[in-house]
Design the sequence.
């Protein structure tokens, strides 16, 4: 991580980012029309907007699951648009954690094995330290007693907490969440939100979370509003922590 220390607290920068689907076909449609955005490590931001405004499209670009049509997307200071697939995959693996509305846990695996998955994908067989870290995260999300359970033996809220632990096991600089609480009752939603808040404070993991729940976006520090593929507003509800001294 040495190249991403104090000098760059900036996790993400979008420059004139555009995205079209079905390029070159009669059905070609531009859905993101030139977005500029910066996220710092300390940021805890909601991404809101009407259905179809482009939130998931944007998250997929930021998560390096898809490529922009034009413009640039810097992740940890690195331009990613023309980066070869292998490097994008590696960067995604260590820099980004994902939580989706549906958790996509592997049913045949225990909670602990699911949390270990990203580590195993990145480096093969887990070391005892890896297993310790995964256990610690399950403890942090309140599931210490459930590590040997399979997903279908857990409640929806518990499954989503396993997904949160899995998203954080690589200690990502940026946590992306697409309606992570959309499928949960209000208590489980508050629990998952509380975990994001804590990991943002304690590990300096930037959070960008799509939510349709105004009670949750109101508790974020910043709200970015998309309207028809454009950033219409970018508001801070609370003062961000002071940036590192310049020079
Ligand atoms: N693979 C695709 N091919 C063509 N058009 C697409 C594709 N994916 C999304 N779109 C279109 O892009 C626009 C933005 O979609 P997106 O899924 O990003 O919206 P969203 O803000 O996440 O909506 P929701 O709140 O309903 O999840 C929509 O008009 C959608 O129809
Ligand atoms: Mg969406």
Sequence:
């Amino acid at each position: 991580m040495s190249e991403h220390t104090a000098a760059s607290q900036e996790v993400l920068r979008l420059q004139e980012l555009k995205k079209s689907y079905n390029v070159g076909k009669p059905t070609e449609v531009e859905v993101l029309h030139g977005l500029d955005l910066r996220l710092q490590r300390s940021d805890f931001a909601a991404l809101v907007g009407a259905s179809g405004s482009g939130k998931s499209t944007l998250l997929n670009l930021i998560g390096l699951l898809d490529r922009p049509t034009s413009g640039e997307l810097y992740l940890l200071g690195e331009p990613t648009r023309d980066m070869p697939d292998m490097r994008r995959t590696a960067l995604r693996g260590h820099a980004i954690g994902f939580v989706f509305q549906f958790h996509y846990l592997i049913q045949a695996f225990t909670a602990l094995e699911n949390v270990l998955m990203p580590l195993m994908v990145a480096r093969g067989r887990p070391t005892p330290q890896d297993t310790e870290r995964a256990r610690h995260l399950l403890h942090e999300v309140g599931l210490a007693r459930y590590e040997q359970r399979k997903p279908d033996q857990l409640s929806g809220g518990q499954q989503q907490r396993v997904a949160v632990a899995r998203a954080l096991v690589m200690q990502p600089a940026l946590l992306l969440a697409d309606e992570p609480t959309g499928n949960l009752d209000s208590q489980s939603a508050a629990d998952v939100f509380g975990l994001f808040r804590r990991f943002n404070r304690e590990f300096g993991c930037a959070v960008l979370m799509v939510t349709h729940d105004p009670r949750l976006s109101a508790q974020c520090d910043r709200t970015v509003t998309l309207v028809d593929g454009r950033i219409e507003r970018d508001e801070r509800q609370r003062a961000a922590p002071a940036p590192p001294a310049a020079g």
About this structure: Residues 1-7 have pLDDT under 50 and may be disordered.
